[in-house]
């Protein structure tokens, strides 16, 4: 990242062209940029109409501008916003004028949010929640991300860290008064009670987690089976649009095709794979290899077959549902009634698809579980809470061998929570986290 002394700018709204485009400027020169372009600095947080002009006095656009003096801004710095018409030529002219100003430069990905983090406007768990909120595809993902962004985990972690600090203070006071007879015992007992309660609390949180991380990543469902059994037709039917080529010729699908679905708020990635069979075609053979590998990594496999075929290839640990297609044709004709072990459908006519989708929704509900109160949504968070719990457990064991050892383990626990919040020794991961953000955020 560049120096904080520089002022950054970026498009903070959607893809061009658009009705309105928002350009945000943050840093010490934000006010000067606003004064130069709009001819004035309006009252704080008051939308004001202004004719923007470049350095030569040529009009850029008739715009609305806003002024947010720091620290009462999103980044904690002086921030200016330009709401202009969303044409490419307008943005090109505005960016050229901003770039020509001293100490102004285009922002890097996630740099606005990183400045907000560094200025204490949000902690690292809230920044991660914001990133998840931006990338949420379904309503359930949105609700989970919003809870994280509003401090669900961060607030709890700060409370836990305060408890550890208080327990540490009691133990270290006991060390200082170790020659005072009963005084150390009177201090150690309440410290032990705090540590035990905190360890139990964090252990319960860790035991209940996992499904929130799954909701963030989504459920992966692979459609597999022999060639020409209707896998691509089923894929298009689930996606409600043509995403895969449908052909009567075997081996049409040579590569992995993916589509993102929203099933009752659950994020589901459906994969159409190449028909699995022995072949001398090197391209198709590679497609079959990839199909087997992808099916082995999926969370659920829909094995599609037609006619009287009953053989299923199991290539991983995921459950496999047998889906008999083309019940409207030939030997496979019959009722669309499905059972728990087999689904009978016609991908061409839509028979039985409702039952299959309902079963997928139920599977997703069980897979993701109830996560309204889930605290952990990322591996980084889980790992640091595991470190915290391990340090607390060590401190409970160490207390019998010496208060100094227990105090050191408590310091380790507090450090892990500090890293979770992004307030202690996290420089090595900040670039990794914030570069996942889009430019302008």
Q: Which residues form runs of ≥5 with pLDDT under 50?
A: 244-254, 331-336
Strand order of the largest sheet: 3-4-5-2-1-6
Q: Based on helices, strands and strand pairing, what is the structural class? A: alpha/beta
Strand content: 15-25%
Morphology: flat
Q: For the CA atoms, what is the radius of gyration?
A: 29 Å
**Order of helices and strands, N to C?**
EEHEEEHEHHHHHHEHEEHEEEHHHH
Give the % helix.
Answer: 40-55%
Average pLDDT across residues? 82
How many E strands?
12
Largest sheet: 6 strands, mixed
Please, could you describe this protein's structure?
This protein has helices at residues 30-38, 88-99, 111-118, 124-135, 139-149, 152-176, 183-207, 211-217, 231-239, 282-297, 353-368, 379-398, 403-421, 427-434; strands at 7-11, 18-26, 48-53, 59-68, 79-86, 104-106, 219-224, 257-263, 266-272, 300-305, 320-324, 342-344. It is of the alpha/beta class. The protein has a six-stranded mixed sheet with strand order 3-4-5-2-1-6. A six-stranded mixed sheet has the order 8-9-7-10-11-12, with helices on both faces. Helix 4 runs antiparallel to helix 5, helix 6 (152-176) runs antiparallel to helix 13 and helix 7 (183-207) runs antiparallel to helix 12 (379-398). It is flat.
In short:
The protein has 14 helices and 12 strands. The protein has helices spanning 30-38, 88-99, 111-118, 124-135, 139-149, 152-176, 183-207, 211-217, 231-239, 282-297, 353-368, 379-398, 403-421, 427-434, and strands at residues 7-11, 18-26, 48-53, 59-68, 79-86, 104-106, 219-224, 257-263, 266-272, 300-305, 320-324, 342-344.
